[in-house]
UniProtKB/TrEMBL annotation:
The chain crosses the membrane at residues 37-62, 101-119, 131-149, 155-174, 186-206. It holds the Pfam family FecCD. GO terms for biological process: siderophore-iron import into cell. This is Iron ABC transporter permease. It is found in: Cell membrane. One of its GO terms (cellular component) is plasma membrane. Keywords: Cell membrane, Membrane, Transmembrane, Transmembrane helix, Transport. InterPro entries: ABC_BtuC-like, ABC_transptr_permease_BtuC. Belongs to the binding-protein-dependent transport system permease family. FecCD subfamily. It is a multi-pass membrane protein. The keyword Membrane applies.
Amino acid sequence: MSIDQKPVTAPSSPPPAAGFPPVDHGRRLFRIETSRIATLIPVRAAVVGVVLVVVIIGAGLASMTLGAYEVDFAAVIRAIVDPASDPDIRQVVFEWRLPRVLFAVLCGAALALAGGIFQSLTRNPLGSPDIIGFGIGAQFGVTLVMIVFEPNTYMFKAAGALIGGLFTALLVYVLANKNTMSSFRLIIVGIGVSAGLGSLTSWILISVSVGSEGSQCVTLGPLVCCGSRCVCPNPRSGWAPAYQPRSSARLVRRAER
């Protein structure tokens, strides 16, 4: 007696699902590939970057026309692209106004980069170095430099801001680092350090201003006393406008001498 056995076959794969249209998530990428690097760049970010670069160039060229020495827009363009243009206009553009524009662009780029870094660290789209106290730390460093060092040059102020910001960053990191770094703890500690340094900066500024006002009073006091003694030589005669004509004439002749 034989038993007919049917061959066992592997379970067939499920039939392919009905074709659905691809979902557009609103983020298109294009690939840049060379022999060494390959990257994907969002189309939206590229378009926004190009538009911002055009706006920055236009605003920079427009700002070069402003100032005590008036230069029209065409003259600015001509001074940039034509080396044989008016030397006075080229001097104004390249030595005075172009460095101002480049400095503004670099400062804006640094602020944008700092904001992006802190937004990534704190997972907060509104995050900035001011929340964690780095701005107040830089201000505190500049305040100390302006009080301690006499020249008060730009390099001293920049160095004071840099050292103050780094000191604040180190202080916040040490206080917020408890085995693991937490963005919430970082924000709370940063707010506390910012409040403390802000209060200390205000106290220093108030102390300096009070001291300067006191020195002004010390300087001005003897002058006021001497002037009052000269205007009112006799206390019984009253204030100068109430003098008798003869006394007034005698006082004027004494001042002329």
